[in-house]
Known about the structure:
Layout: E1 7-9, E2 12-15, E3 20-24, H1 31-42, E4 48-53, E5 56-57, H2 65-73, H3 77-81, E6 86-87, H4 90-111, H5 113-117, H6 122-131, E7 137-140, E8 146-149, E9 154-155, H7 162-179, E10 186-192, H8 200-215, E11 225-230, H9 234-240, E12 246-250, E13 257-262, H10 265-274, H11 280-283, E14 286-291, H12 293-305, E15 312-317, H13 320-337, E16 343-347, E17 362-366, H14 379-385, H15 389-402, H16 409-417, H17 431-437, H18 444-455, H19 467-471, H20 473-479
Parallel strand pairs: 2-13, 3-11, 3-12, 4-10, 5-6, 10-11, 14-15, 14-16, 16-17
Antiparallel strand pairs: 1-2, 7-8, 8-9, 12-13
Helix pairs in contact: 4-7, 6-7, 7-8, 8-9, 12-18, 14-18, 15-16
Amino acid sequence: MLMVNDIGNDACKLLGLTPISVIVGRNGSGKSQFLRGMSGVLTPGANYFVRYISPERAGTFRREAGVDDAIRNSPTWLQDTRMKNQVSNFKAASASLLNRVERTFLLRVQNDPKVRASDATFQNAQLSKINRLLTNIEIVAGDQFTMRTLDGVEVVADNISSGESEAIALATEILDFINSLTPERFNVLLLDEPDVHMHPDLQARFARFLIDELLELKPEMAPRTAVVIATHSTPMICELATSDQCSVGTKYFGKNTVTQRPIAENLRKVSPFFGHPLSKSLSDDTLLIVEGEDDERVWQQAGRTAEGRIHLYPCLATTVNQQAELEKFCSDWLGALYDKPLAISLRDGDGKIETLDDIGPVRRFRLACYEAENLLLTDQCLQILGCEWADFCEKAEVWLAANKEDKRSALVSALIKAEDRLRHVKLKSIRDVICRIADSGKPWEFVVGRAIGLYALPDFPVPKFSLADFIGHDALALLLA
């Protein structure tokens, strides 16, 4: 529960505040004016820390000396400039904030033994969150941040797409806001139309990024932090609606008060499937129900890598029970809506080998391995990681020699000795170690998703320990049809 339920005053008031408060309303109803007014109402009080993100975010995501100096020398410069509708150097300021996010993380590593012991780096702990949003590029840490294609070709900031530029800037703003939270005050982030320039799928991914960041807040900070979002975006609202921390309020013309309402449970169930404007009714994509956010990111990456050859819309079930409910829900509704109804449900193997019966138009499969993390050990994924199995085993021996006291060493040792690469064993605890052993800084979901996406392309080799063996031949044939 939030420590504050209502914020503002008679000039600008929001009632029923929740950790994620979405404000909708017609063009001209005054949503942006309301958020700017809220920023002005709350900022003078010593009880609030407020960050307002304006709707027009112009410029290039590249540091500028003048902007760096302004942020460093004036505590109010950032907020003052963003009270305007048009901010010409918004993304230059965001680029400066990314350096601040890095410095904050490095100080945490220096001062917190637990963080040091986790082998976390800024690349895999922070930048990877931003990179999961992106389609064709990634940000790489170094003396300076650089942007590269997935094939390693450097890209100048001026040449990235407007949607990806928006995602990078906004994700950076959120990370910096999270780092700036203070336990002495109530913290409010005001996001004005974050969906601008983003493709609907990217809007949904950004919403999930925001949900995940709030879920990671320390227990003492969660009740002191709220995000208020003004948006027209159906996919963003529907993704945010999957969180039980979300509410929706309507801004009416001439009214100074917005009242938030809880999200109805039936909207939470429907939104992942039919709230997306580019769903099956328009794009002919097949609904794919997956078990967990990691699997969702795997298949999103697979679709981006496959260059249009994978026609799936991944939908998230957070538990096995919810997956069963959604399978039934899809079975009931798809036949009523479409001439050729089809959905696919892909569950974790969890050590089980028995097949699942279909439910109407919903084709149900289990992974032919324990869970998606096991796919990292297929030859295709090892190829993405840059080594073959024999090379991986040699590198693992080096890692084991240097990490004898690591509690994960027993599982790594068992892995390289196993004839089946521990196909039916839970490997979640060493998934990041596997990538580290292979000298890769890429998130494991990216590796698996890219391997699946390349599998859908012509002439991709099929080795002995293949994705088809670990996913299931029948399942993969339908998924890539």
